[in-house]
Amino acid sequence: MGLVGAVVALAVLAYTYFGYPIAIWALARVFPVGRRRAGGKDEGNADVALPMVSVCLPVFNGVHFLPEKIQSLLAEDYPRDRLEILVYCDGCTDDSEQVARALAAAPGMEDRMRVFSNPARRGKPTALNTLCPAARGDLLLLNDARQPLSSNAVRALVLAMGDENVGCATGNLMLKGAAGSGVYWRYENWIRKQESRFRGVLGVTGPLAMMRRADFRPLPDDVILDDMWIPMQLGLAGKRVAFVAAAEAYDTAFEDDREFQRKARTLAGNYQLFARMPALLNPFVNPFWFETISHKILRLVAPWLMLVLAVSSLTAALCGPIGGAPAMRALVLAQVAFYAAALLGRRAGRLGGLARTFVVLNSAAVVGLLRHLTGSQRITW
User: Fold this and answer.
1) DSSP E strands: which ranges in the chain?
2) Mind listing the pLDDT tens digit for each residue in 133-179?
3) CA 209 to CA 171: how far, in whole Å?
């Protein structure tokens, strides 16, 4: 602890949130990944044979979202006879199953939509393990019930999957609202775009992702993050995950209290992922090792670095060498101002709201670790 600890912690934090985005941006421009289309033809070529796509849609108590979601899928700019919708009602206690079956029974839907159900709530892995083997399509569209899709989403993802080196193609989640999580997601999305331009993103967006049915392997029933498990498995097998900005899903940014719960679950899932796939930490096995360490591992370490920075800078300011004391005192005051702004949140203006979101998300990493260690994180969402 002391001056060295403060400098190291500050340097790693600066790299995590600023240095890595700059580095991946530079790499994306110097070493852009090659982009090939299916059959070497252009996107608009009508001669390209479009494959069958099976939409896999797990639902839990989604009665308020299902009609709009199904309508957005039916409105896709994709041949009707090459798009089927599979709905899995996961222990729903509302009228989701009745609504889904009514939609499936509507005129013209007989061959387009099938409904599966389980009276007990088991979680998304069980849902996908049921839907994917039942799918008729060569491609699987994995998505969630809450977010409607842009009308070009399926076609854009199918085009990306025409590259045999792409194992997954993921879309662009567009969040509306003034919540700090929306600003954070735009920052995160920008990084994902650069990663995709370089080699590939590390995970997929849960509401909008596509993979080949031939590549699907049954998920462990207790896996928390299917949207990380599937692409990481494919990544270790040498496939890349493409980010397709043109394919969009729409949602509303959560306020900090709700975002905390979502993020704690996500980060508990990250700990589970690395515990079960230690190969991800091996630079000789993981082709995306640099991105994995910089984007995922250091984010898990960040809250502890913040603690080290606070303690070390305070120690150096009070007890360190005289020459370094003024700088450390300034660093301590900067941290006090930052955490005070986070405590005030939006009452301190836009920057206060962003500071609060940053602290909330890093606090979620600590809670996620505790849930992982105690096995208390639920699989269900």
Assistant:
1) 53-59, 83-90, 113-118, 139-142, 166-176, 209-212, 240-252
2) 999 999 999 999 999 999 999 999 999 999 999 999 999 999 887 78
3) 6
